[in-house]
Write a structure and sequence with these properties.
Radius of gyration: 21 Å
Membrane topology: Multi-pass membrane protein
Number of helices: 9
Order of helices and strands: EHHEEHHHHHHH
Strand content: under 5%
Structural class: mainly alpha
Number of strands: 3
Family: Belongs to the archaeal/bacterial/fungal opsin family.
Keywords: Chromophore, Membrane, Photoreceptor protein, Receptor, Retinal protein, Sensory transduction, Transmembrane, Transmembrane helix
Subcellular location: Membrane
Shape: globular
Oligomer: single chain
Largest sheet: 3 strands, antiparallel
Protein name: Xanthorhodopsin
Distance between the termini: 59 Å
């Protein structure tokens, strides 16, 4: 539940983390737009999707940021006192779920796109991953907004089913496709799956806090910080790694392109 009162320190913590996410998503998207010509065209779809993901996240975090500022106010001089919930305004948690509903399936599209597999293989993977990702978010939302721990636990359990299926596809089915990738990117792509697992693992921990009888302002602040850090890892950091993979694959596919992009020492090392 949203707390009635936040201390000055709690308010500043949430405020600064929301600001950090906005900057991370926005300028990652700017970097990727500028860097797009530095990979071969066949890999630009993955980076274009990454730009869209970061743009969507930046937009929604602007909305979350504005909602947070409107929801908590103080009469203290210099804003140094406690912040209480404003009359007639509330903090909208729904913005996060709208963001996740759009971006989580696209994160999986990024990963599949950068592999540049045969079209039939790509389509088969996406038909499995995208609906499961959307279903995972849709099932989690009723529990997030419910004040009933039983209902929260039920929908949390239901949303775990598509989550487990996504992990199965990523770590079992996708492993077969990794064998077809250049040696230089296999390890990165394998670690990328663990980054998704790590960052996505923060969400259920924050989701389960009320079920563990961890509540109050500190728990709510912890949840906001956890969601913010997870979104930076799962979108901005993830996008930069996808870009790195696209660069390596571009160099492996086209030595002439590699010579134009790399320093002489790097070209000599690759030779």
């Amino acid at each position: 539940m949203i707390p009635d009162i936040l201390s000055h320190g709690q308010y500043e913590t949430v405020y600064n983390f929301l600001s950090l996410v906005i900057a991370s998503q926005l300028f990652t998207a700017v970097f990727l737009v500028i860097a797009l010509p530095r990979i071969l065209p066949r890999y630009r779809q993955a980076i274009t999707v990454a730009i869209v993901v970061c743009g969507i996240a930046a937009y929604h975090y602007f909305r979350i940021f504005d909602s947070f500022k409107a929801a908590f106010v103080t009469d203290a001089v210099g804003g140094t006192g406690d912040y209480s919930q404003a009359v007639g305004a509330g903090f909208n948690e729904g913005y996060r779920y709208v963001d996740w509903l759009l971006t989580v399936p696209l994160l999986l599209v990024e990963l599949v796109a950068v592999l540049a597999l045969a079209r039939s293989v790509q389509s088969a993977l996406l038909r499995r991953l995208v609906p499961a990702a959307a279903l995972m978010i849709i099932l989690g939302y009723p529990g997030e907004i419910s004040g009933d721990n039983g209902l929260r636990g039920l929908f949390g359990l239901l949303s775990t089913i598509p989550f487990a299926y996504i992990l199965f596809v990523l770590f079992v089915q996708l492993s077969k496709s990794l064998d077809q990738q250049p040696t230089g990117v296999r390890r990165i792509l394998s670690q990328l799956r663990f980054l998704l697992l790590l960052s996505w693992g923060v969400y259920p921990i924050a989701y389960l806090l009320p079920l563990l009888n961890i509540s109050g302002a500190d728990a709510w602040v912890f949840k906001q910080v956890g969601y913010s850090v997870a979104d930076i890892l799962a979108k901005a950091v993830y996008a930069v790694i996808i870009y790195q993979v696209a660069r390596i694959k571009s160099f492996d596919d086209d030595p002439a392109f590699a010579r134009d992009e790399l320093s002489r020492d790097e070209v000599a090392t690759r030779s």
